């Protein structure tokens, strides 16, 4: 990316709380990432307790294993991922957006099978996180398939990162969290992407995605970055986003319902 493109990207990210990044996985690299991804989904690469259902509050149908498959820490489970181009490219983008001290905090895969039709609940990522003195964080959401409104592209509420965290509550089965929001919220914006493209969002930006109602799959790979000092701060308190702990609840005191 040129200096001007990076400057424009950083400005949009700062103003809106999200920004499309463009291509981070080339057409020639997509097959490699999809192969690794599908090996996780099939169980050929074992995920153990790092695999869960982000849509477990909705009854499963048609014998599917998960409504929304979430696999935390794929790069820890399969270290060769760290040496492929995406991690290097995403780190460079993160440092442009939140500062030169950014490092990878965690990564994850979120997958939507055809016709599962279960939305990812509205939430702000920071509600999952412990309180931190430095709020800088960016998630880089990478589409490994074309992502549109009907199969589950991301939706964001423009400017919501500048507002206080909304109250969050556990989903009906107590395994994830959600907050009140809708597509009718002022500033709510769908962000379709082509396979290989990415969108970056702040940890405080409201977001969700519709369920997949199409015949195709929707594979997404997400990489989260924050300042190295804040990663040390988290780890000192035992917070590692599922690497050794298993916490999927409201942890930020600003997001606790009264």
TrEMBL record:
It comes from the Bacteria. Residues 236-258 are annotated as: Disordered. It holds the Pfam family PhyH. InterPro entries: Phytyl_CoA_dOase-like. PANTHER family: PHYTANOYL-COA DIOXYGENASE DOMAIN CONTAINING 1, PHYTANOYL-COA HYDROXYLASE. This is Phytanoyl-CoA dioxygenase.
């Amino acid at each position: 990316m040129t200096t001007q493109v990076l400057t424009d990207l950083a400005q949009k990210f700062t103003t809106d709380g999200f920004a499309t990044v463009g291509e981070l996985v080339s057409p020639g690299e997509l097959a490699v990432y999809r192969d690794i991804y599908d090996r996780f989904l099939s169980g050929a690469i074992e995920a153990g307790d790092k695999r869960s259902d982000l849509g477990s509050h909705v009854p499963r149908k048609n014998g599917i294993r998960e409504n929304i498959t979430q696999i935390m820490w794929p790069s820890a489970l399969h270290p060769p991922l760290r040496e492929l181009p995406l991690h290097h490219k995403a780190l460079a983008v993160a440092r442009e957006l939140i500062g030169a001290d950014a490092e990878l905090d965690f990564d994850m895969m979120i997958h939507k099978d055809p016709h599962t039709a279960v939305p990812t609940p509205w939430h702000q990522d920071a509600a999952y996180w412990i309180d931190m003195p430095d709020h800088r964080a960016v998630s880089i959401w990478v589409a490994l398939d074309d992502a549109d409104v009907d199969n589950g592209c991301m939706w964001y509420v423009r400017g919501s990162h500048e507002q206080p965290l909304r109250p969050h509550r556990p989903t009906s089965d107590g395994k994830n969290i959600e907050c009140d929001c809708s597509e009718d919220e002022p500033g709510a914006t769908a962000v379709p992407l082509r396979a290989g493209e990415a969108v970056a969002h702040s940890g405080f930006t409201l977001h969700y995605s519709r369920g997949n109602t199409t015949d195709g799959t929707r594979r997404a790979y997400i990489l989260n970055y924050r300042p190295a000092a804040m990663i040390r701060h988290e780890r000192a308190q035992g917070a590692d986003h599922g690497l050794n702990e298993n916490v999927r609840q409201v942890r930020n005191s600003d997001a606790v319902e009264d």
